[in-house]
From TrEMBL, chain A:
It comes from Candidatus Kryptonium thompsonii. GO terms for molecular function: cytochrome-c oxidase activity; heme binding. This is Cytochrome c oxidase subunit 1. One of its GO terms (biological process) is aerobic respiration. GO terms for cellular component: membrane. It holds the Pfam family COX1. InterPro entries: Cyt_c_oxase-like_su1_dom, Cyt_c_oxase-like_su1_sf, Cyt_C_Oxase_1. The chain crosses the membrane at residues 30-52, 72-97, 104-126, 146-172, 184-217, 237-257, 269-288, 303-323, 349-373, 393-414, 470-496, 525-546.
TrEMBL record, chain B:
It comes from the Bacteria. Keywords: Membrane, Transmembrane, Transmembrane helix. This is Uncharacterized protein. It comes from Candidatus Kryptonium thompsonii. The chain crosses the membrane at residues 12-38. The keyword Membrane applies. The lineage of its organism: Bacteria, Pseudomonadati, Candidatus Kryptoniota, Candidatus Kryptonium.
UniProtKB/TrEMBL annotation, chain C:
GO terms for molecular function: copper ion binding; cytochrome-c oxidase activity. The keyword Metal-binding applies. Keywords: Copper, Membrane, Metal-binding, Transmembrane, Transmembrane helix. It comes from Candidatus Kryptonium thompsonii. This is Cytochrome c oxidase subunit 2.
């Protein structure tokens, strides 16, 4: 084996070999992820306090500028940087393997950083007409060429990271450091990486052509074609999150309560279904477009007969079941829900894990399934219900799950002790609770017809508008505090925290005994049935609402 | 150590991450992108 | 278990009864939801329109202007008001930053309204009915629509189209 040449240390908690280059790449990605999160968070509070029209904080220009800034940093930079770290971790450390072509890895990260800086620079300083074009930058609304260039540099860097992931996995098998089936976490991250390749190719096509058009090299870019290609990027980019987040949930369930996946076969099938079918869901954005017909819309928006929804429903059972098995094996075996009530809620990684799971399912997942119905989409397209949906999935779901993982990354990878257990413990509740209130308010306002991406809505008379805008704003303030606590605490800990010698004590990593031993999961069955009924009721109500509008065909 | 059982073919297919990559690119490229392109191109052009 | 190697032959591990039942229930739900969508597309009364054409912007503008000229009955804040004919297609122009014309429709009468944009992408959002359609330049979208209630309805643009996006409005009057 070739390991003698590779600089590495052994993690005292997990027993994993941490190779130097991989560790560096993880660190750089994590640092920029947090920086992007900080930028996005600043944008978030400013636009939320503008949408709360009783406060109406920002002037028009600055609002649209900040909206673009917020969208780019959150939906693209924060998430993809974090996933970059995940790709390296899952393909090297978890597989006991080395980082292939570390120089190429550093080049990829440098490209990503350049793209990140360039795009943010131009959004903040450019002529507002050319830079407040939103994360979607729909042609023929023309952005500054550097806006597209930054986007493209970042995407190319991210694509190289994905390719390196596959090379690492290939190499681990070839050098014999890893044999047999990969762990579930790596399997899920592989699914995310496959989705990422599809995504980034579409991103390069859409933004590349827009870039050439902005330079005057090509004369026109067809608006429908751009929409098709852009959403082959914009939506799957969030499906990368989904696969990565689900993988992180499995991981956190294992770390925090010794979770045991009920069935490897079933959970892997769910990841495969994501890989095959979830990208068809890009059609969600094109359901009321002139360019596409009903068969294409229905086939794609349903993820090919809801196969990706099936995958999510599988995880929706398997993940709480995994935590339940872990807890029951640890002795919390009484009744239906003792395992959940006596769960380590004071471990921020656990609370982040479980809160993100619940909000993702009830707010994000359910609203997504409903909004993705071709016909119901007529009532929700481009309303505030759209960001309401994805603040349930990407923000309260993915971001909070990633924060939960960060509570382990800091002591295990950065080797620093958290400065304050108190702030760590309440942070997931602040962030999750605030986003819950905000997303529910947005979903409701959207159903009442309030559009997204708009500076003011005084012409629209809607019941409870002022109240719902206030709850949106209050939720946003609470979530903002939660995000700020996370960012400051992480940064200060990395700078001033005590070095961890040996095993870090906080947050606790539970050691699993007898991984093959599984218990039954009656509590999860009840939870899953509650979710199923909730989804069925919401689905039916939305069809009813649709049946009340004008006839159209 | 337990005796090594043969791995079923279906599991070998599941475990092949490169097969996953291939199918994960082809399937959505066909249903979403290629079909979508055909939809756009086949729209009638008004004079 | 998530970062440990699974059993070499995990395929042969038994799947628990409750998980099996859950997966079956989920499959049924998925098929049902798909069938509902297909059934509604065939028999439902509210479906995203399927009729659309590729068109050059001047061609659309020319036909729309001729339509407005022919059926104009009034003007409101500089925007023509048009009584939509029952036996001919109507037009609706979206452009930075207004919709034109104001359309007067009759309740429970079916109209074919041709919508497109003269510049960037816009969103056609009829309020408070709350029906939303994407308006894409270069594409003429034919909405076959039957207003089932009387009143004045606001059209707002709900696709970001520039710094004055939020002032972009239009109107439909149903008599």
């Amino acid at each position: 084996m070739a390991e003698v040449l590779v600089e590495a240390r052994t993690c005292p908690v997990t027993g994993l070999r941490v190779v130097k280059h991989a560790e560096n790449l993880i660190k750089v990605n994590a640092v920029f992820a947090v920086l992007a999160l900080l930028f996005g968070t600043i944008g978030a509070i400013l636009i939320a306090l503008t949408r709360w029209e009783a406060i109406h904080l920002l002037p028009t220009d600055l609002f649209y500028r900040m909206l673009t800034f917020h969208g780019m940093n959150m939906l693209v930079f924060w998430i993809v940087f974090f996933e970059g770290a995940g790709l390296v971790f899952a393909s090297t450390i978890v597989l006991n393997a080395r980082q292939v072509a570390p120089k190429l890895g550093y080049l990829a990260v440098i490209l990503m950083i350049l793209g990140f800086l360039l795009t943010n620079f131009i959004i903040l300083t450019g002529d507002v007409n050319e830079t407040a074009v939103m994360f979607t930058a729909y042609v023929p609304l023309k952005a500054h060429p550097l806006f597209y260039l930054g986007y493209i540099l970042f995407a190319v860097g991210a694509l190289i990271m994905c390719i390196l992931f596959f090379l690492n996995v290939y190499n681990a098998k070839r050098e014999g450091t890893y044999e047999g089936p990969v762990p579930l976490f790596t399997y899920g991250i592989a699914a995310a990486a496959v989705i990422a390749v599809f995504t980034l190719v579409h991103g390069a096509l859409a933004l590349g052509s827009a870039f050439l058009w902005s330079l005057g090299i090509i004369e026109v870019v067809d608006a429908s074609l751009y929409r098709l290609l852009f959403w082959g990027f914009g939506h799957p980019a969030q499906q990368i999150n989904l696969a990565a987040m689900v993988s992180v949930w499995y991981l956190l369930s294992y770390f925090t309560v010794g979770g045991v996946t009920p069935s490897e076969k079933v959970s892997r099938t769910a990841f495969l279904l994501y890989v095959l079918f979830i990208n068809a869901g890009s059609a969600h954005h094109l359901l009321v477009d002139p360019g596409f017909g009903a068969p294409w819309k229905i086939f794609n928006t349903s993820y090919v007969i809801y196969m990706a929804v099936l995958a999510s429903l599988i995880h929706c059972f398997a993940i709480p079941a995994s935590a339940e098995i872990g807890q029951r094996k640890r002795g919390f075996n009484k009744g239906l829900f003792t395992w959940l009530i006596k769960a380590p809620w004071s471990n921020p990684a656990f609370s982040a894990f479980f809160i993100s799971l619940v909000i993702f399912g009830f707010i994000g997942g359910a609203s997504g399934v409903i909004m993705g119905v071709e016909q119901i989409n007529m009532k929700l397209h481009n309303t505030l219900g759209v960001p309401g949906h994805f603040h349930g999935t990407v923000a309260a779901g993915t971001s909070l799950a990633f924060m939960g993982l960060a509570y382990y990354v800091v002591p295990l990878i950065f080797r620093r002790e958290w400065l304050s257990k108190f702030w760590a413990r309440i942070q997931p509740f602040l962030f999750g609770g605030g986003l819950f209130l905000m997303a529910v308010s947005m979903n409701t306002l959207g159903r009442l017809g309030i559009p997204r991406r708009v500076w003011e809505t005084s012409a629209l008379v809607v019941p409870y508008k002022e109240l719902l805008q206030a709850t949106l704003g209050i939720g946003a303030v609470v979530a903002f505090l939660g995000a700020l606590v996370f960012i400051l605490h992480t940064v200060l800990t990395i700078i001033f925290g005590k070095r961890v010698e040996g095993k870090p004590k906080f947050p606790e990593v539970v050691q699993v005994s007898n991984p093959d031993e599984k218990t039954s999961t009656p509590g999860t069955i009840v939870l899953a049935i509650i979710f199923f009924l909730y989804l069925a009721i919401m689905y039916t109500i939305n069809w009813y609402w649709l049946s009340r509008v004008w006839e159209v065909r | 150590m337990r005796e090594k059982k043969p791995v079923p073919l279906i599991q070998l297919l599941y475990d092949d991450i490169f097969l996953m990559l291939l199918l994960g690119l082809i399937v959505p490229a066909l249903t979403y992108t290629i079909w979508g392109l055909i939809e756009i191109i086949s729209k009638k052009v008004l004079p | 278990m998530a970062i440990n190697k699974p059993n070499e032959v995990y395929w042969e591990e038994k799947v628990g009864f409750s998980e099996k039942a859950w997966v079956l229930l989920s499959i049924v739900a998925c098929i049902v939801m798909f069938m509902v969508m297909v059934a509604w597309a065939i028999a439902g009364k509210q479906n995203p329109p399927n009729e659309a054409y590729r068109v050059s912007i001047p061609s659309f503008a020319e036909r729309a202007e001729a339509f407005i000229e022919k059926y104009k009955v009034d003007e409101e804040n500089g925007i023509p008001v048009v009584e939509a004919p029952e036996d001919e297609d109507s037009y609706l122009i979206a452009r930075m930053f207004y919709f034109s014309p104001v359309l007067i429709l009759k309740q429970n009468q079916t109209y074919r309204i041709r919508v497109s944009s003269l510049d960037v992408q816009h969103g056609l959002s009829i309020q408070p009915v709350n029906m939303n359609f994407q308006v894409v330049p270069g594409y003429e979208y034919v909405l076959t629509i039957k207003p089932t209630e009387k009143g004045e309805f606001l059209i707002v643009c709900n696709e970001y189209c520039g710094l004055a996006h939020h002032v972009m409005k239009g109107k439909i009057i149903v008599k």
